[in-house]
Amino acid sequence: MSKSGAKVAWTVAVLLTLAAAVIGAYYGIHLYQERSTYVQVNDAKVDGAKIAISAPQNGKLVEFTAEVGKAYKAGDVLGYVCVPQPVVGTGTAGTPGAAQSGVPEAGGAQTPAGTASGGAQSGAPQASEQAAGEALCVRVPVTMPQDGTIVLRSQEEGSLVGAGTPLAYAFNLSKLYVRALVSEADYPDVAVGSDVDVWLTAYPGTKLQGKVVEKGLYTEGMFSLLPVLPGTGETSEKLPVRIELTSVPQDVQLVPGLSATVKIARSR
């Protein structure tokens, strides 16, 4: 290679090195500014108050009309629980059914009416008894406890349910929010009222806006069913932050459980 060619190659190498250094410095400064200006959280999701529609009493679920995706008002009747009632009059002496049981009267003679009645009862089909048993129940209504949209049916008609058994679940889709878990190191830098940018994984490239409306006063580990065991290294706890969405594009459908990434403006 000639001296001129070597000089050109050296110049190109120097320029490439300088360009890489400038680009690296730019991104380094940009990253530093981002971290010093915002708290970025990848552990976030759309959430809301879950509404459980429960059986009012023990019995059989009938006429359950709750539809997934349909909105209901508080107090709307979604179905009934058929609560069995004790059968009155089984033909025992001293009960109203004794006159129809075919038991002889005090004089010892059995009346024709009693004979006919006893014969009719002894030949009654089982299906009639079952129908009568099903009719002897009180229909207790299943009502919507709050305004909301049904998202899941957990029981179907004909199911035997106990009092308090969840029959369906709902959310008020107009009151959904974003719940972010902030590390304890960044928690002091988050303040109520801070502006937030939100990106949903289901809608890449679409930015939503919101504000911090509540800071949790507990760590996630405090209410975990499985306690975190201490390890040999340092552990970082996370605290929940509630974000109210103030700007949502029309083409975005919020659904409870959608994962999200948020950037919260630091307060200090």
TrEMBL record:
GO terms for cellular component: cell envelope. Its main location: other. Residues 94-125 are annotated as: Disordered. Residues 94-115 have a biased composition (Low complexity). Keywords: Coiled coil. Signal peptide: none annotated. It is found in: Cell envelope. It comes from the Bacteria. The keyword Phosphoprotein does not apply. This is Multidrug resistance protein [function not yet clear]. It comes from Brockia lithotrophica.
